[in-house]
Amino acid sequence: MTAGWRVLSAAVAGVDHARRGQACQDSFAVGQAHGAFIAAVADGGDGLRLSAAGATFATTMAVGAVRRLLSAVTEQTTRDARYWGDLVGDLAEGLPEAFRRLIQGTAYLFPEAEARDFGATLTLAIADPPWLAVLSIGDGFVVTRSGGGHLDLLLPPECGGAAFVSSPGAAAAAHTLVARIADLTGIALSTNGLRNLGLVYENAIAQHPQPSFFGPIFTRADGAADGADLLRLLASEQVCSVTGGDKTLVVAVPQ
Amino acid sequence: MLGCGIGASLVIVAALGVVIVELRRDVGLGRVRPARGAAAPDAEGVAWGYGPEPEAEPEPETDAEPEPGSGPREGRVLAALRPRGLVLVDGVAEPADWRGLGEAPGRGGAVLLTRSAGADGWLAWPLTGPAAGTARDRHAAAAGGSDGACP
To answer: What kind of fold does domain B70-151 have according to CATH?
Structure first.
């Protein structure tokens, strides 16, 4: 499914949700198409009755959309900065509308549901080294590893109230970015549930990834760890004691 | 492959069958937008102690002049230069190493960029003038809503 990439991924319900008997409202999906690795994470909005379904819709739909766009690539297509910029721009424009159509298509399953009931953030990454294209609607974030272990906060979490894919202004609220990192050795996508652990803040501004958190996790991805290992970490008292909400992490390293 | 909600996963399999994603392809690099800031955390990051921290990178601070190579460019700091980080130049994020004296500008700060022929990344230097960002004004700029700002 993801040949050429070693992937660790897990989503864990937050303490607050678990103690109320609620399921995790985050979701993630990964895929691959035409040599590119695709990953998406989504955070269902608190208090929205169908946000878990919305998160699953968002991630699955996003990965599927990228697959379709990449399938249009021909041998004459040059995958340069303009190509990736166009691609994530198209996704930013098209995914919110596609999301609304998807919801309309589920009217039989969710009678009387409105689009806002499915509110979820979306963070998407498409990696085809040296290129990395990212898109975010809401407060997820993306970390990169390069060289022997240098970490960068490529896309920090959104400020304030998170936009949702289902929001009327989602396309305008989308942030897209194309990176060219020749020595890219890993990417990580997270919902905002891990921002307090995974990022270092100064004066309320996320400055850079927390090396003591992301360093070992990337190292685990390099090795033989599997998703269960990451799940155990995210569900540990060590992590849950300082994070209240759901948390989802996808870590991928090229093999 | 999918995260939470096995039931939701079953639902989406059915739902995806009725949706056609129509994506317009009329947007160019202008869609590439700089990253933005973050909300205040409830707590600082926590050291977990289950693995060693990556070795600190050497500080290549110097007051030497920018190297010749590709012509100097102006870029914006995207990921903190410590001393390596990411800069946004011509709409693309690329690695850069801070070569100036002292602390590099924060996220959104302007830097002068040079690149040696064949190099994969940029060398970042102080940029004098009103467009320059400094460590001192990092938070002031953030408070004003520039890149990386969090109101």
So the answer is: OB fold (Dihydrolipoamide Acetyltransferase, E2P) (2.40.50)
